[in-house]
Amino acid sequence: MIPTTRSKRETDFDAGIFDEPFILFGDSRRHVDPKFGLMQFGPFSLPGQPRSLSQIRVGIIGSATLVSDMQLWLTQCANPIYNDGGQPHGAPYFPGFNSSHPFYCSIFTNPSLNVVLKEAELKKLLLAPNFDERVTKIVKFYSDALQVLAGREPQPDVVICCLPQEVVDTCVVDRKKPRKNKWWKKFGRRKKEDQFDLFLPSVEPSEEEELLEHSNLRRGLKGAAMFHNFPIQIVWPKTIAQRNSTATGKSTQDAATRAWNLMTALYYKAGGTPWRADGLDESTCYVGVSFFHDATEQSLVRTSMAQTFSASGHGYVLRGSAFEWNSEENGNSPHLDKNSATQLLRDAIALYTKQNGGASPSRVVVHKSSKYWQEELAGFKEALTDIPNYDLVAFDSSGSLQLVRSGLYAPLRGTYVKLGIQKFLLYTVGYTPFLKTYQGPRIPMPLQVIEHYGDTPWSELLAEVLCLTKMNWNSANFASSDPITLAFSKKVGEILSELAVEITPRPEYRFYM
């Protein structure tokens, strides 16, 4: 029997699809896709204004073989790189990175910008039987090379750290540690099925480290590079393979896609702006609040962190205060007391204001991956006293709720489900009409909005979140699953955890990506 009236317990259910957000490129021309936007219009610039970069000085650290391979790969990236054309939208050819259309920017390499590591010395370091000792020695080996570059003139704008396969094999994963993580079983199964490479990035080992949770090589290198004031790009041999298969296994992506990702990351890390989000308020400050373990303190200590972004694409990182958090007593998600919450957000707003010519934001949006405790809420609101408008949003990505779409394809990216006054599902990944496919390996999981405090209409708030998923300049991918305020929080926290308290972290986001 179908009831004729709504139950009082019935959810206020609604659903729909947001249009795909545009992003801005050269002369503020618009497109929905990073690759095609760059291909047609070049990196972002205002109408009639030059691009932010015309040349990138690239330093290279690695063995003699890898330095030569990297130089050859950069030379090849200056020209068009084609693939089989099987995915014309999702994996187009690479047009070439040079001083002509579309990038209007060239790569400058020179032996004076390189440091060649002695392979015999490298092999000695890898003989250390203890995993942590090997990693520490390798990080110092590369840090010493970065120090050499820091003493040269001119200095590189960005440094590529090439990791030999022996380092990847022995310093990325401690295979003697117990694998209790649920993802390890999946890793083992994929390894046997020769599918593991499908789930790894083409440029950096960040996703593999997330999957296994046993490596600190990446964050150690990033921390060392920050100490020497260099943004770095970590490259594995498979990234610069001349073909799509090597002696070390299948490459994760075709050569054209690898070129797109590498050159986009280099452009951003050298200080350029590949693209900007379209439709975001220029006077809004976006803040992602998260927490990380302090590696130099006891296990109960957490440190707060704020990642601040402007609509123009400038990103900054702020390390907050350390505090004790007992997860057994208080739960796994750390929370701030009122004073700490107030200070963290005030500092984030002050950093935004300083980096934007002294202009204070007219609106502040705070994103957090757990619910707000009352003290946190009170502290954040106190910090926002002089801000005309604000929105405090909490997310959850546990995947407990999903939307089933009839047919063979996953739900469309941009699909939303309204579950209540403050609760929503938003598919930031899914079938993408422009790409004519869903590119993920598994069933897409929606992002859940579980709390919202503020006055912005929910429809505008969700559309804004979808737009913020297109602000990842570490690759030329169509979009990320999380908004940029939260997408790299774990990686950024890991890098900050390697820095001693007395060292002031670089605020620029490009040092962490």
Key features of this structure:
globular; Nucleotidyltransferase, domain 5; disordered N terminus; 15 helices; five-stranded parallel beta sheet; about 525 residues; about 20% strand; alpha/beta
What does this structure look like?
With 513 residues, the protein is α/β, with parallel strands linked by helices. It has two domains: 53-269, no CATH class; 276-511, Nucleotidyltransferase, domain 5 (2-Layer Sandwich), CATH 3.30.420. Helices cover 30% and strands 19% of the residues. The protein is built from 15 helices and 19 strands. The protein has helices spanning 34-41, 64-77, 119-125, 131-150, 165-171, 182-192, 206-212, 217-227, 255-269, 327-330, 338-355, 374-383, 458-468, 484-487, 489-497; strands at 14-17, 23-24, 30-31, 55-63, 106-108, 114-117, 158-162, 232-235, 245-246, 249-250, 276-277, 284-293, 301-310, 315-324, 363-368, 389-396, 415-418, 424-426, 447-454. It has a nine-stranded mixed beta sheet with strand order 1-17-18-19-16-15-12-13-14. Helix 8 (217-227) crosses helix 15. It is globular and about 65 Å long. The N and C termini lie far apart (56 Å). Residues 1-9, 179-215 and 244-249 have low confidence and may be disordered.
